[in-house]
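Database export, one record per block. Field names are fixed; values are copied verbatim from the stored entry.
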Amino acid sequence: MDEGNAQPVQTVEPPVEPPLRSVATAMATAAEAVRDGASDAVAKAKEVSSATGEYVSRFVYSTSYYLAYGVVFPTLLVTNFLPGCGSIADGLVDGAAAASDVIAERKERAAARKAAKTEVQADPAPA
């Protein structure tokens, strides 16, 4: 072998990444994963909340309905068959009708207030 003709072997080294860049990349990746996880958690929470709220609402409605039915129906049945108790049955029926009317009026007023509030927010008056 001729040492005069020997050429040095060139080695190609991979580019060295600055240490702070790799830390920044790792932090950005972690932040993105947390953000994705948080948005998934919020979506799941909304889904569960909606389903739970619907179940609770239906439970309260059913309980109230059957409780009222279980109290009012037997009372009206008994008062209609006992002599002299017709006025009690009439009073119960009239009271239930009056209560329904009051609730309907309150719902209408609440809807009107909500509509007025929405209208004011959508079109504020100039100062």
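Remark 1: The chain is about 80% helix and 0% strand.
Remark 2: The two ends are 98 Å apart (CA to CA).
End of record.
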